[in-house]
Design goal:
single chain; alpha/beta; five-stranded parallel β-sheet; 14 helices
């Protein structure tokens, strides 16, 4: 990496990811590392211009006070104490905080604002070519933002040495498998293997109603399908993954205060296929930076700005057992909801929105006939971090339009509900 770096040493503050994002927003690269990093390890990092020690109010983790090595304080780059241990308290006011950070990064450290997606992509292309050489790479391409950006970056770096496998488990949103094929096979000329596993997954899910059981079935079956496809190929030595920086931080590899949850794609090679190495070119990017990289790589906006979508797909937006008819119902209802939100110009202001199929059935009237059909629940939330969320205030006229369209266009749905619950007490997804 040629860009200048500000190093953050984590001494117990939950705000370190925010601090790293604020530094990157200034155009300077920043990484979080554990407090016990050695001076030799610091010197081995490229272009470190300054170090920030941040431990929140007490620098205590699990009842033990922690600190960086004394050699770090005496290193020949500026050190900022961004907590109460410093000579001056770290500003709590937003504007003062940004100004203090800017003064340190530019005035004290002399860092250059050369962190941008153009430079990042150029660096990664070079690093990928060095790592891979003339060998082959395999990528599970879901069509989500992370895997799509990894695919685009690897296509730029190594072209046909990359093989993408898109497994259609039948639980994607309406039109998504076709979009993946159109973009990567037809527009980007990727070496893409499309696997139609719809019937296979739905057969496995038959009779399963518990959310965790559904997740396990889908996860296990996906690994089996991917393994089968991988074993058909010859000479694959690398597995590419869409690991991004929040995955690394939340898995505890970014410091003391950040062990939130484990991620399947952080920490080592999977044991189900014999790969030699992992390629993770987005490992240093936050989610919004990943989207920026996608735009820089020429991916279409509808793909780059795609909302978070759960790994088990629509299976956890169908309450209870998953059947082909239920999948069709939720796909059609969701497509209408999304289309009307976009028409109303609300798609950029709502953080996440989708339709879910409840397992509630009720009496209704369609024409002159009595019905006994399903209720669809519409969900739309606004959030900054997805840790908490509020239900979006949807105009009544829009809800009326969507309700009318769904009950008239989607078979076996006769009632529409809008979920007004925030997070907490609810979650953003239904299961």
């Amino acid at each position: 990496m040629k860009q200048d770096m500000i190093l953050i040493l984590d001494l117990g503050s939950e705000e370190n990811p925010r601090l790293a994002r604020e530094i990157r927003a200034l155009g300077v690269y920043s990484e979080i590392h554990p407090h016990d990093i050695t001076l030799e390890e610091v010197k081995a990092l490229p272009n470190v211009k300054g170090i920030i020690l941040n431990g929140g109010p007490n620098r205590v983790v699990d009842g033990v006070e922690i600190d960086a090595a004394k050699e770090i304080y005496n290193h020949d780059v500026p050190v900022l104490l961004a907590d109460h241990k410093g000579d001056q308290p770290w500003p709590s006011d937003e504007e003062e905080r940004k100004q203090a950070l800017s003064n340190f990064v530019f005035g004290v450290c002399g860092a250059q604002p050369n962190w941008n997606m153009e430079n990042f992509i150029a660096d990664q292309v070079e690093l990928i070519r060095q790592q891979v050489g003339d060998r082959k790479v395999l990528l599970a391409l879901s069509g989500g933002v992370d895997s799509s950006v990894v695919a685009a970056l690897l296509i730029r770096a190594i072209g046909k040495q990359l093989t993408c496998v898109h497994v259609n488990h039948g639980l994607l949103r309406k039109g998504e498998p076709e979009q993946v094929v159109e973009v990567f096979r037809h527009q980007m000329d990727a070496n893409l293997i499309y696997v139609d596993a719809v019937d296979r997954f739905l057969d496995k899910l038959a009779g399963a109603a518990d959310p965790e059981q559904k997740r396990k079935i889908i996860g296990t079956e996906f690994i089996r399908v991917f393994e089968e496809e991988a074993r058909k190929l010859e000479g694959i030595e690398f597995l590419a993954q869409g690991t991004i920086y929040p995955d690394v931080v939340e898995s505890g590899l970014g410091g003391e205060s950040t062990v939130i949850k484990s991620h399947h794609n952080v920490g080592g090679l999977p044991d189900y296929v014999d790969f030699k190495e992992i390629v993770e070119p987005l490992r240093d990017l936050f989610k919004d930076e990943t989207r920026q990289a996608g735009r820089e790589l020429g991916l279409p906006e509808y793909l780059v700005s795609r909302q978070p979508f759960p790994g088990p797909g629509l299976a956890i937006r169908i309450i209870g057992e998953v059947t082909p008819d239920k999948v069709k119902m939720v796909q059609e209802a969701d497509a209408i909801w999304r289309e009307e939100i976009a028409k109303a110009g609300l798609d950029k202001s709502i953080s996440q929105y989708y339709a879910a199929l409840t397992n509630m059935r009720s009496v209704g009237v369609m024409g002159d006939e009595r019905t006994y059909d399903y209720a669809v629940a519409l969900r739309a939330v606004t959030t900054t971090d997805f840790m908490t969320a509020e239900a979006a205030e949807i105009p009544w006229g829009l809800l009326q339009t969507v309700t009318s369209r769904i009950v008239n266009e989607v078979q076996h749905v006769n009632r529409i509900l809008y979920d007004c619950t925030g997070k907490p007490p609810a979650t953003i997804e239904f299961e």
